[in-house]
Each structure stands twice: as structure tokens, then as C-alpha cells.
Design brief:
Blueprint lengths: L1 H14 L4 E14 L2 E2 L3 E11 L3 E5 L4 E13 L5 E9 L4 E9 L4 E7 L3 E9 L12
Antiparallel strand pairs: 1-2, 1-3, 1-9, 3-4, 4-5, 5-6, 6-7, 7-8, 8-9
Length: 138
């Protein structure tokens, strides 16, 4: 458990995206039909998102709460995006995977909430409270 906490602290400090508040400006959803993923549906949204070391809360019409249980790893993909994956449990006790993606080419932070049969994704922007933070991180 101590090792997990140390990894989380190091990872969160290194990526400079945790313990922040964001506004979700674009929302995406998709589901599985007959074992095939549907195309992403997108819509504009304006939701408050709070990310800290062990919990992510998305203030959509139905409040989504996720507790991070395990760090699955971080890597950089060929496009230069920084990706961190986590195992999490929602407020109903259902397991899911969360991906945080920092897209440096377009200066955007995205969060993906992934279940076996459905997925949500959100484009995030810093709130005014975060505007004084390092401008290199979306």
C-alpha cells in the first residue's frame, strides 16, 4: 500500500494535472451493441470536474464519483501524448478504467471513463483558479 501511495504521489506531481479543477467543454459517449463499439457521439457541455490524488468527481446532471484504486502505468504514445491509466471504482462499486491524456500538440487534457459496455470522454479546460499554473500543461 505504501508503494502504491508513493507511485501515485510521484506520478501526480510529475504530470501536474492533479489537485485541480476543470470545466468539461465537450462530452463524448459510446456503447457496445452486439459486441461492437458504436461511433462516438459528441455534444457541448459545461460541467465542473474535480481531480485529486485519489478521487475524480464529474458534476454532470448525475454526479459521477470515481475512487482510484491502482495505477496501471503511464506512457507516451507515438503522437507525443502523455497517457496515464488507472483502475477505479465508481460510487456504486462498479469497476472501471480511467485514462488521463495530455495532448501537447493541441494543449488539451482529456479524461476517459471506460466500462466493459460503455465509455465517456471529456475535453477539459482549466478553471480561472488554475490559470496561473504552468502554461505548458493543458
Amino acid at each position: 500500500m505504501k508503494k502504491l501511495i508513493m507511485i501515485l504521489v510521484a506520478l501526480f506531481c510529475a504530470t501536474n494535472i492533479f489537485a485541480k479543477d476543470y470545466i468539461a467543454t465537450q462530452c463524448y459517449t459510446r456503447g457496445k451493441v452486439k459486441q461492437e463499439w458504436t461511433k462516438w457521439n459528441s455534444r457541448l457541455c459545461n460541467m465542473y470536474v474535480s481531480i485529486d490524488m485519489f478521487k475524480i468527481v464529474i458534476y454532470s446532471p448525475l454526479i459521477q464519483e470515481y475512487t482510484i484504486c491502482r495505477v496501471r502505468g503511464s506512457y507516451t504514445n507515438p503522437d507525443g501524448d502523455s497517457i496515464s491509466k488507472f483502475d477505479a471504482i465508481d460510487k456504486y462499486g462498479v469497476k472501471c478504467t480511467i485514462k488521463l491524456i495530455v495532448r501537447f500538440d493541441v494543449k488539451r487534457l482529456q479524461i476517459y471513463i471506460m466500462y466493459n459496455n460503455k465509455q465517456w470522454a471529456y475535453d477539459l479546460e482549466k478553471t480561472n483558479q488554475n490559470q496561473n499554473d504552468d502554461e505548458k500543461t493543458p
